[in-house]
Design a protein that fits this description.
Blueprint lengths: L2 E6 L5 E5 L18 E4 L7 H16 L12
Antiparallel strand pairs: 1-2, 1-3
The structure holds zinc ion.
The site of zinc ion (ZN) has 8 residues, from loops.
């Protein structure tokens, strides 16, 4: 089961829960039992590393000069 991180809007606390995907949006706060909890992005599920590398490679192309590395001095 994946580990999800939640934020409670009532007691303003964050907590982590192991829940199945089926019940991922059906949890209550572990402290105040409020239903006003919001699921945060899972640390494990977020493809951060690969995404950042990809956008870094893409950035020079959107700069307009097409030099591909910022070495042309147009930045
Ligand atoms: Zn709470």
């Amino acid at each position: 089961m994946p580990l999800f991180e939640y934020y409670c809007a009532d007691c303003k606390s964050r907590f982590e829960l192991l829940v199945s995907h089926k019940h991922a949006d059906d949890v209550v706060c572990t402290k105040c039992h409020s239903e006003k909890v919001r699921r945060l992005l899972s640390v494990f599920a977020a493809p951060r590393g690969a995404g950042e590398d990809y956008s870094f490679d893409d950035a020079p192309a959107t700069g307009g000069c097409g030099c591909g590395g910022g070495s042309c001095g147009c930045h």
